[in-house]
């Protein structure tokens, strides 16, 4: 039997990453381009072009798209994307028409969560809570081997839970959202302030980016912390502390076995996760009378989104083939590798 | 075929309520007693006594127990109860030994959530988030027709999500827990303060309880608000506001179709739910691009816990009978009324 391959896309605010993914989550070929963020039609063109390129060498059976935005519960429409021009964009059907392949669209964090559950940090767990730390905080939930998307597809937006009444303003229009305290933007904000005001760490960060304070991001802060800078270490610990308290809140509500931390900020590793675990254990309700969730770093890195999107699309297309009247064989629900990400409705 | 009856218990910090419940969630007979809260053996005796009494007139097939405490994921052991003397109490087996009936133990809020999903406010929904407002805040989640209990059985403890950093101290050992701001204790606290300091509302509350400030509870505050007292109305609106903001956070994470508000404080009806809906719509992330959860009052009142516990026990016992080798007929998964609350692991 030929390998079952699917094409995965991760469509972010600045970049489109794509890859051909096999049944074991391996990426066999890659493509990438910048996101034409102001023009939905141009995004569609980019997806089509990459698909045709990768199809010429690989027999792909489905396309999965993880998109930075709100995706409806049927996996067809991007309702809204803060960084892209999509508003009620019927992406699934548009891509399917162009490519003549079955297409699945999901939120990018859901795609990453699925990948970590299938092939990564939560491989042997029934459930997973994923928290992706980038400029903001995204999230995903897998329950009993199924992606949990909520009633209308928008579950997992952990970054917009309020943690400080009348706190820092958030792009979403609220104040005090968790992502204002526990994401990469905190490091970027502090780094730029330090660079502008000329502290010792600030000068170090400026040197690292060639002199423009606005070029400083969390990445340089993490590098400084890894180099032993105490102030940078303290900043990461502070973000980790907010992270741990927030995870304790999620654990009060969801009681997961494992919480996987992904996204670029998780590259800081123990400098972030150590303080997060400490704050979690300090603030988890019922501590001492319960088994606590493990807090672990994601395994799959930045390709998790495209791997998860491809895998969900492959499994969903397979399930549809099996369920269709023309299918010759009905395969019984198999073990883990055969589990298919049913949409719950 | 004889009616399929089960016995439901709701074991709280002060009262034990029990009832014989039929397949449609009707309570056919009732018993109640005070909870012997310091002695686990005495609780067991009370359960046995009530069971024998109710069995003499009704052919019950199973016992369901909703307990105010942390119940493990297998439904056998009360890990910890803040108001009772249970610590790792193997309640299921103890009751089963005494009564020779199949027994299911769950958290009391989970039992109420199941009842509201089966027979109450969320009858036609695939999912449910229940928030019970009493002295504290309890909660339950039903996903795709199954109670969601989390990895270790402790999901739904919404009241202990932190909403104010370094906020009011909570009995759980943390500070700033949601239940310190959005539960009945806020009304009780304010009512007692007003009673002690002799404000107009305070005098009114004192009159209602016969002169002892410590006898004032949220119930009198709600009565005053219903009578048109502006200060009491404002207190309920404030609790409703905190409630709505917290629900917006839960909706960011879980995106439920419906949020059911139960518990004694929900008796305030629109005086509480109006402000809650307003705060929810004001602070829900992505508002304007999504379908918002409906926030509705629970339908089943204080008997929800015993009804839900009985129903879960009845369905679980039936499923076990059907799955056992001696069962003559295997019944296919049926419609809603036949759904059984599978434990997810």
How many domains, in number, for the residues of chain A?
A: 2
Helical content of chain A, roughly? 25-40%
Largest interface, by Cβ-Cβ below 8 angstroms: which chains and how many residues each? A-B, 53 and 53 residues
Strands of chain A, count: 13
How large is the count of helical segments of chain A?
Answer: 9
CATH class identity of the largest domain in chain A: Alpha Beta
Mean pLDDT of chain A: 92
Estimated structural class of chain A: alpha/beta
User: What's the quaternary structure here?
Assistant: homodimer
Q: Which descriptor suits the 3D outline of chain A?
A: globular
Query: What's the CATH architecture name of the largest domain in chain A?
Result: 2-Layer Sandwich
Q: What is the distance, rounded to the nearest whole angstrom, between the alpha carbons of the first and last residues of chain A? A: 32 Å
Largest sheet of chain A, described in full?
A: 5 strands, mixed
Low-confidence stretches of chain A: 327-339
- CATH topology of the largest domain in chain A, by name, is Nucleotidyltransferase, domain 5
N-to-C SSE string of chain A, H for helix and E for strand:
EEEHEEEEHEHEEEHHHHEHEH
Instruction: Say which CATH homologous superfamily of the largest domain in chain A is assigned.
Output: ATPase, nucleotide binding domain
